[in-house]
Amino acid sequence: MKLTKMMLTTTALTVAAGAAFAEGHGSMADSMTVVSWGGAYQNSQVKAYVEPYVEMNESLEVVTDESSAEAVTKLRAMSEAGNITWDVVDVVAADAMRLCDEGLALEIDPDTMLADAPDGTKASEDFGDLIVSECFIPQIVYSTTFGYRTDLLDTAPTSVCDIFDTDTFPGKRALEKRPIGNMEWALICDGVAIEDVYDTLETEEGVQRAFNKLDTIKDDVVWWSAGAETPQLLADGEVTIGSTYNGRLFSAIAEQGQPIGMLWDWQMFDLDGWIIPAGLPEDREARALDFVKFATDTQRLADQAKYISYGPARASSAPLVGQHAELGIEMAPHMPTDPNNAQNTFLFNYDWWASYRDDLDAQYQAWLLQ
To answer: What is the DSSP string of 62-80?
Structure first.
């Protein structure tokens, strides 16, 4: 049966071919729902992971869903209702930690459940410190950073704090409709030392200080929830500067030829990866484990970098990163970890956000309504 094209809305594809990638999982379900973030990122996963996996498996139906931004909320509701409809979910590291702490994600032993590197190096060593939770299967290193319209601004921004300067850099801004990233940038641009950002955010005064800084541009902000929104807002000229994931900006610039520049200053490094919901029926859990073992092996993680400029999470994958699958350009210089792009970087404190996220989310949403 011919492989059909998988759309990035909830869609199914069915293929007959080959045998499963891994053995020893017992009976595996013949359908699987994979949840991610949509846009260029989910397309890179489909190309690098899902389509090759389906080609290897017989009569497997894969449904894609773009609800990762709501993963914690939705998995909590599914668990409470006793009806978990997702099988593999792409989440940021801090959300994986929350889901793991709440018993909503399956604990993973990387050395028995994930593939070794080609030279026999165990997965735990190959992923190293990027395994930040017992339930988290690392996939990529990415950053949240800013893009700007090169043709609509007389001066190109060089500092992340330029987003707060609406006189020199006029026009609307696009910022994410959640506190992560925005609170840190606000404090950095209000003079807080990098090493003091999270200590400051632990205080009521520090949180208010961040909100006060964001208040200075609040009337000029278009708020986004999905990573694909900012590139579109920039392309349409609705904003002149906007935050989003570096891979989304790469797609707009390199693949679509949009007049957009990248601002790497104080880019926010983060990790993204898979979790498997806890409590799945045995056959669905076996299928999910089989898929993530395949999707996070050395070659597959390197393959994803052919489609989007995110760094693979395995050390053994980095030397295999080559050219863009269609453009033929070298991808390494477009990674957030490239030395030329990583002169000023800020690494999310995953433990901190796992502890404080719910409280700050509530305060942030209340502030948005003021």
So the answer is: EEEE--GGGHHHHHHHHHH
Q: What is the pLDDT of residues 108-163, one digit of tens each?
A: 999 999 999 999 999 999 999 899 999 999 999 899 999 999 999 999 999 999 99
| pLDDT digits 0-9 by tens, 84-116 | 999 999 999 989 999 999 999 999 999 999 999
User: Helix 93-101 crosses helix 350-368 at what angle (to 10 degrees)?
Assistant: 100
Residue 24 CA, distance from chain mean position? 30
Who's near 230: CB < 8 A, 6+ residues apart?
147, 174, 224, 239, 242, 243, 244, 248, 249
CA dihedral for 175, 250, 342, 172, sign (positive or negative): negative
**What is the C-alpha to C-alpha distance for residues 22 and 115, in angstroms, rounded to an integer?**
9
Q: Helix, strand, coil: what percent of the chain each, to 5?
A: 40, 20, 40
Task: Provide the CB-side half-sphere exposure for 116 (13 A, CA).
Answer: 6
